[in-house]
């Protein structure tokens, strides 16, 4: 494990901007309004040769523990446990506030070393705030500008005594579309409409309140990735999973807030990062048109899709509900029939192991490569059983097919007059590949390619 550096401070002092600066990517959502970050976000950081894990946290607010800000504060307090050093960020331009003083008192009571950062210190506007910060009793403040990258060398010198010699080997790089690499951890994203129970589901799998949850819709804003080890009791083995929680996706017409648009865009990026996507439905609301739109988006991105009906423990007429959703999915997702449909309960844990096993199984199909000989034996049989049509009396000749890629599976069909091949015949071939060659309900790409005629004028 890399040394862990936690970023703490009241809302809107620039914690997420600093986090993004340290990890070198815009992982955390940033906006002018306070309270954007709600869940802890982890990222591998690199600062002038120092490697560590940075942890972005929600803004510290003095509020009722049962309220949303109070629950966010509890998440921040939990994040301090196990940290190697804390970066306490203040706004140098605003000066020291009573909330800054409260945070300083709390940090004095912990065993974690604290580095005081006076952010937004560019120019002369932050000078008075820097001087005021000495009263917090946390040593010399380090003036920085997270937005402009100023003060990086000073931050390096402050971190060096706490991190040097404690750096671990770099973590294994995430796999990408390169099919020659091993599969590695299952990258599983949970998506759905707001309040479907996505964060509660992840917490249940982890066995801890890792993500902020509650009755309020739209609590999750950032997509949060969590590495986790799942013990498959049925198979008697331990399997690695990277769980990705995402913000709820409402109908586009209802998304008017800038921050919600950013959250939805972040969720879409999380889908692109995932291998398998679980679309979580609310059993008390059934399947809605927005669910089908989300499912279509996942399939268009080429990701393996599963549907899980949450809150199954309180579903009315469960058998009728399940069959109704199954039929609606087959009708509404004509491009991929038979998408896995499971009943789960984030509250009780019902069906979660079955969901994870299905996730590993569908990833196998999504990553599968068929030998060219076996593929063309199937192809010859498919043509013999149902030859291509001859529109206008012109024969369409299909010569051979090859698998060009995996994750998702992509095939190239070679022949002549392929521009005249009806879409219905194309679907016939895709469905045959899926059914006969073991690709189940994963999205398949079929590209048509005709040889170039050297005698034809452009």
Explain the overall architecture.
- The chain folds into 3 domains: 4-163, 3-Layer(aba) Sandwich (Rossmann fold); 186-366, Rossmann fold (3-Layer(aba) Sandwich), CATH 3.40.50; 372-449, K homology (KH) domain (GMP Synthetase, Chain A, domain 3, 2-Layer Sandwich).
- It is 32% helix and 21% strand.
- It has helices spanning 15-23, 68-80, 98-108, 127-132, 152-163, 198-206, 258-273, 289-300, 318-332, 352-366, 372-385, 423-436; strands spanning 4-8, 41-47, 50-56, 85-91, 114-119, 142-143, 186-191, 224-232, 237-245, 276-282, 304-310, 341-343, 397-405, 410-416, 445-449.
- α8 links the parallel β10 and β11 (304-310).
- α11 (372-385) crosses α12 (423-436).
- The chain is elongated, with a radius of gyration of 26 Å.
- Residues 29-36 and 168-179 have low confidence and may be disordered.
Number of domains: 3
Q: Write down the Rg.
A: 26 Å
User: What's the helical proportion of residues?
Assistant: 25-40%
CATH architecture of the largest domain: 3-Layer(aba) Sandwich
Calculate the mean pLDDT score and round it: 84
Structural class: alpha/beta
**Total number of helical segments?**
12
GO biological process, one term: ribosome biogenesis
Pfam families: KH_dom-like (PF14714), MMR_HSR1 (PF01926)
Family: Belongs to the TRAFAC class TrmE-Era-EngA-EngB-Septin-like GTPase superfamily. EngA (Der) GTPase family.
Domain EngA-type G: 3-167, 186-367
């Amino acid at each position: 494990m890399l040394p862990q550096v936690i970023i703490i401070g009241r809302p809107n002092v620039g914690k997420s901007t600093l986090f993004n600066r340290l990890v070198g990517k815009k992982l955390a959502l940033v906006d002018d309004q306070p309270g954007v970050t709600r869940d802890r976000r982890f990222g591998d950081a690199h600062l002038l040769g120092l490697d560590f894990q940075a942890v972005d946290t929600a803004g510290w607010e003095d509020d009722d523990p049962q309220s949303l800000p109070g629950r966010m504060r509890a998440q921040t307090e939990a994040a301090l446990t196990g940290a190697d050093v804390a970066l306490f960020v203040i706004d140098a331009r605003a000066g020291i506030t009573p909330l800054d003083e409260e945070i300083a008192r709390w940090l004095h009571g912990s065993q974690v070393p604290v580095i005081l950062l006076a952010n937004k210190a560019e120019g002369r506007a932050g000078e008075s705030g820097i001087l005021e910060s000495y009263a917090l009793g946390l040593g010399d403040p380090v003036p920085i500008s997270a937005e402009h990258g100023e003060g990086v060398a000073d931050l390096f010198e402050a971190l060096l005594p706490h991190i040097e010699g404690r750096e671990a080997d770099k973590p294994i790089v995430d796999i990408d579309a390169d099919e020659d690499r091993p599969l590695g951890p299952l990258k599983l994203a949970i998506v759905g409409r707001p309040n479907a129970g996505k964060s509660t589901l992840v917490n249940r799998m982890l066995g801890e309140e890792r993500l902020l949850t509650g009755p309020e819709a739209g609590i999750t804003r950032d997509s949060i990735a969590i590495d986790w080890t799942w013990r498959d009791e049925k198979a008697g083995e331990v399997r690695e999973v990277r769980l990705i929680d995402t913000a709820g996706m409402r109908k586009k017409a209802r998304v008017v807030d800038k921050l919600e648009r950013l959250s939805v865009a972040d969720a879409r990026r999380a889908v692109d990062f995932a291998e398998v996507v679980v679309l979580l439905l609310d059993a008390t609301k059934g399947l809605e048109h927005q669910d089908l739109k989300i499912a279509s988006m996942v399939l268009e991105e080429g990701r393996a899709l599963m549907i899980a009906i949450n809150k199954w423990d309180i579903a009315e007429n469960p058998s009728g509900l399940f069959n109704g959703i199954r039929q609606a999915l087959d009708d509404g997702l004509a491009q991929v029939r038979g998408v896995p449909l499971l009943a789960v309960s984030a509250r009780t844990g019902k069906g979660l192991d079955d969901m994870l096993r299905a996730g590993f199984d569908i990833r196998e199909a999504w990553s599968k490569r068929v030998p060219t000989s076996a593929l063309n034996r199937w192809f010859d049989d498919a043509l013999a059983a149902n030859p291509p049509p001859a529109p206008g009396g012109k024969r369409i000749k299909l010569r051979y097919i090859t698998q060009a890629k995996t994750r998702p599976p992509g095939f190239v069909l070679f022949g002549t007059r392929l521009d005249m091949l009806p879409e219905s015949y194309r679907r016939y071939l895709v469905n045959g590949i899926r059914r006969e060659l073991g690709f189940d309900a994963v999205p398949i790409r079929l590209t048509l390619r005709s040889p170039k005629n050297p005698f034809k004028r452009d």
